[in-house]
């Protein structure tokens, strides 16, 4: 049975800023006793709020500035080196605002998970809440997915949705979506820790024993 597996999965979390998704994951691992260990939190920005929070929690932290490298690939290779010594099972992107190079994605093939603030495949890229309001969609949301070389693409693990209200602004949407993001991401971490998540022959995600991967 997947949930009886005794070896905790090792998670490495990449952030760039506030780190509220990272905090939700750390708290879920600790308070719900998930079979997972956070091996480190790494930020490409030394002043990321989330990095200080993780440090205060006794989690290993590292900041590695992309500005110190001459190219995206050089930075990603340096990141790979730091991550490899920690031997994580999964790399969780939690507000990591860097496009990853094909080298990085191939190195950790199938082991990188991202949260994106839209119902993919709608609205990849930046300013997703503005994009949603501009188009007039009536439902907006977030997607947790495996990372492939194509930006904000890749097999969908779970999604969370909220209705768009007449008076919504991008800021209001972002604020209302955030708790849903935390819920969806922590559920996915639970499934990963219980080793329920796999890809079917069509490249779609299956989560053993879970019928509904849509949250509202
Ligand atoms: C979250 O809304 C996340 O979905 C988004 O950045 C925010 C980070 O917040 N990620 C992206 O836009 C990635 N393309 P957090 O630092 O408080 O978790």
Q: On the 0-100 scale, what is the average pLDDT?
A: 96
Low-confidence stretches: none
Count of folded domains: 2
Radius of gyration: 17 Å
3D shape: globular
Strand proportion:
15-25%
CATH topology of the largest domain: Rossmann fold
Helix count, DSSP H or I runs of 4 or more residues: 6
Spatial order of the strands forming the largest sheet: 3-2-1-4-5-6-7-10
* Separation, N- and C-terminal Cα atoms: 28 Å
**Fourth-tier CATH superfamily name of the largest domain:** Formyl transferase, N-terminal domain
**Distinct ligands, ions and cofactors found in the model:** glycinamide ribonucleotide
Q: Could you say what the CATH architecture of the largest domain is?
A: 3-Layer(aba) Sandwich
Q: Structural class, judged by helices and strands?
A: alpha/beta
CATH domain class of the largest domain? Alpha Beta
Number of strands: 10
Give the % helix.
25-40%
The main pleated sheet reads as: 8 strands, mixed
SSE string, helices as H and strands as E: EHEHEHEHEHEEHEEE
